## 1
Amino acid sequence: MIERLWAKLSKSSLQPADPGAFENVPEHVAIIMDGNGRWAKDRGLPRMAGHHSGMKAVKRITIAADRLGVKYLTLYAFSTENWKRPKAEVDFLMKLPQQFLEIELDELIANNVQVRMMGHKEDLPPFTISAVEEAIVKTANNTGLVLNFALNYGSRKEMLEAVKDIAADVQQGRLAIEDIDDKVMADRLLTSGLPDPDLLIRTSGELRLSNFMMWQLAYSELWFTDVYWPEFTEAHFHEAILEYQRRARRYGGL
Ligand code: IPE
Ligand code: IPE
Ligand code: MG
């Protein structure tokens, strides 16, 4: 099966995908896009150049995922901890969604991609929100790949908000404590309605979650690479998918 897939994958980089032709493709892939700054530093460039180049990788991997027949692609673009960075870098990062969508939105629409966002909107500047919301509205009826940007996202904040929501329902008699289960919790997370990621990819050699989807990744397959995000290509993505296909997912069973 692996060999057959290889053949199809190498074909897929040359022509549009035939998703039905692939077996056992992860339905939901989540990526911690890391290493932009180090990529730039290695080249004697400012960190911003790394973020700019990282944007091109977003486009590359969106196309690659769509070709393979991945249904959901969640990309960690800005964490609730990234506000700790120098203001100039934060300001630059806040402008990236608008820049990316200005260039790519038409093509995303043409390719039937549905844009979504998960994160805490309240702290984001209005121009960031409006660019993302425009993309969400314009692609809402698309039925292809769901491209989900995690923007000002933090797993602990997400879970705390869900817990507060559940507590309020209990306090007001809308929910009984004994009825609180996985689904009640999952429905109150920012991923409500999305399946859990099948595969998590993190670039740049860091082996941690950095507050990303800690509820949803409970049974995801994890794949790490030393490659920095700006140089992450379709071939690396295929490597991750092939490794995923070799794994036996047991979910605690046999
Ligand atoms: C990932 O690259 C992008 C964001 C976190 C916004 P980094 O900016 O973290 O790059 P490194 O890890 O410093 O190299
Ligand atoms: C995680 O990367 C956040 C994003 C990729 C958006 P970081 O670079 O912020 O993570 P740490 O600080 O190395 O854990
Ligand atoms: Mg980093």
## 2
Amino acid sequence: MAGYLISDTRKVTTHRFIEMKQKGEKISMLTSYDYTTAGIVDRAGVDCILVGDSASNVMVGNTTTLPMTVDQMIYHARSVMRAVNRALVVCDMPFGSYQADCYDGVRNAIRIMKESGCDALKLEGGIEIIDTIKRILDAGIPVMGHLGLTPQSINKFGTYTVRAKEEAEAEKLLSDAKALDEVGCFGVVLEKIPAKLASMVSKEISVPTIGIGAGNGTDGQVLVVADMLGMTQGFSPRFLRRYADLNGIMTEAIGHYVDDVKNGDFPNEKESY
Ligand code: KIV
């Protein structure tokens, strides 16, 4: 059954998210940053929409996610929320909005929830931000964790290469995942780590793992929508499957429009008043 024929139109909640893992049902997740795309993604049957800070690269043209602000994330998340009926909508807390101290983190988390209307938040990091996550959860806000390649720390890592290949980093990742599970996160994104490690973490924790470049043993998968639709160019990591060539389709369509305007074919009589 294609995703767009999904008959269960009930809103996906964080509780259903966890039930999906318990039932062995894989979870589909894609990013969206705007009203029109989010509407298509939701109607196509995606379970969870991430208003990712990858908006920084995809929508704004920055080379990292670091410049995104709380105001910008609220703007994108509010646009997405206006379009979505079924999917669970998770918004990224941007770099600098939760790292300084937990009070800052809680205040920014409350602001994003209040002003965007999204369903949950995602934060990058493990044990080092566990107090902040606990306080955000205590404020009644569902939290998704994010481990492995955490793009907000790119300046510390120095490269976007696969993480946790060495034993010490893999052990730390496993204990971070357990800590996120124990504190009450409803899910954990695992980005660009060995498939074997991702499978092991997925078996060890009770909440769903959502992989990106983490193999097939996670409880769900996430991709950046502009990448999987082939809108972006010059970014082809091994984990990225392109389901369409929208760049080619859009360039051709726009080229036809330019030709039609230039040769006077557009608009014709039927397209005029
Ligand atoms: O911002 C984003 O798009 C993300 C995904 C890559 C998981 O965090």
## 3
Amino acid sequence: MNGMTERPRRLRKNENLRSMVRETRVSADSLVYPFFVMEGENIKEEIPTMPGQFRYSIDRLPELFDALKASGVFRVLIFGIPGYKDEEGSSAWAEDGIVQRALKFLKEKYPEFYLITDVCMCEYTSHGHCGILCEHDVDNDKTLKVLARTALSHVKAGADMVAPSDMMDGRIAAIREILDENGYVNTPIMSYSVKYASSFYGPFRDAAGSAPSFGDRKSYQMDFHNVREALKEAALDEMEGADILMVKPGMAYLDILVKVKEMTDKPVALYSVSGEYSMIKAAAMAGYIDEMKVVGESAVCMFRAGADIIITYYAMEIADLIKQGRIG
Ligand code: PBG
């Protein structure tokens, strides 16, 4: 007798026991894979700052979608890279725009997938900002109109859900209104509610050619020193009718996720962004870490913090880890 009544190690004895008492369960059903579709034909080009991730022309998308299907990842987030950019980003809402055509193609060829579209202007504007400029800043209310128009064009082309990532004030209400007016009352909105002005998006901007040509995004995306402001953004989006709230980036922002989860009864998504992918990939390529172990652990940690949905470029690998019983 040594007086110890509690011995936590008793429940860590072997894998059989550990997996019985596990607190966090993970599922491929909660994973969303983001990808880039671009104008052109027969293109599958690797993104230099995101090894293992590609930009696809529509005709090459079957390679990606067959792979997703094989891994059991059936939810995607679509980003478009247009052939043409202008001041107002008009190819974002064009009926024959890149996202709209990709949606039509995928709805017909891969009806078993759930298609979510990113709604933003930065890939479509010549200046790379997320909306319509007035002098050297983005004009909030003018931008609402083009965002709403873009969201509607996505839904008309077959999007199952829209995800505005621009961070304008009032955009959820503007999008909800235009969807409802056009009879799409049941199309959900996943709001990038808490989106910080983050350098972790660097590789994405390289991938999508969407870096701002001057200045930065700090007048619309959030200051990463702030927490209470995140809760305000989340509350506003809830009031405006968002169905799912997102926190972005992921790993370095799990404290924010925990707080948002506490204040809402909506599902909460976490976006593990391009820079997070590229850091793990680069460390793995240098031989510094075991890629799949780090990917699996990171995914579990995001779920453990309370994410209901994880958006990640590693979705297929995580699904495979779950299938192999290495996490879960
Ligand atoms: C568009 C958008 C960005 C990301 C998602 N939507 C880039 C940005 O805000 O600059 C970043 C995603 C990633 O880094 O993986 N506004």
